[in-house]
Amino acid sequence: MEADVIDKIIEKHPKEPSSIIQVLLDVQSELYYLPEDVLKYVSAELKVPISRTYNLATFYKAFSLKPKGKHPISVCTGTACYVEGADKLMEQFERELGIKDGETTADKKFSLESVRCLGCCGLAPVVTVGKNLHGKLPSSKVGKILKQYK
Fold first, then answer.
1. What class has domain 71-147?
2. 111 and which of 23, 30, 104, 122 could share a cystine (Cβ 3.0–4.6 Å)?
């Protein structure tokens, strides 16, 4: 565990149980996932039962207990996006990255996941890479999108 990194994150917030979600979000942003030893450490530092910390970490989609890539890719597979070719888009990302839905590249640069709806149906099909939204994305542009993040 990178205790110095975690300590710096904890120091940015009030050292009390009500800070747990923000601390976990900051850890997730730094490490790209929440390792078990970090969950235990944060729980102890903020005096939050580990069961509560684990419940939060598994309840919210923003958190991952598995290592994620530096650039998480979410492909919307909701109805509007599906009708506009989200399945072909997902297949192209899988081919280009050499991974399947729910996996992370070996170099930890990219994670790929399908999501039910990103709330941008008018821009279907929609993909997010980190916080960047790409709408009306044809599968032929996947390589170009990925190059922006390599």
1. alpha beta
2. 104
Which residues are within 8 A (CB) of 46 and not within 5 positions of it... i.e. 6 or more apart?
A: 10, 15, 16, 17, 19, 20, 23
Sheet holding 71-76, edge to edge: 110-115, 71-76, 127-129, 132-134
Query: Average pLDDT for residues 10-38, to the nearest whole number?
Result: 95
Residue ranges of domains in the chain: 3-59, 71-147
Question: Which pLDDT belongs to residue 11?
Answer: 96
Q: Which uninterrupted H or E stretch holds 115?
A: strand 110-115
pTM: 0.75
Count of CB atoms within 10 A of residue 82's CB? 15
Asked if pLDDT for residue 80 goes beyond 90, the answer is: yes
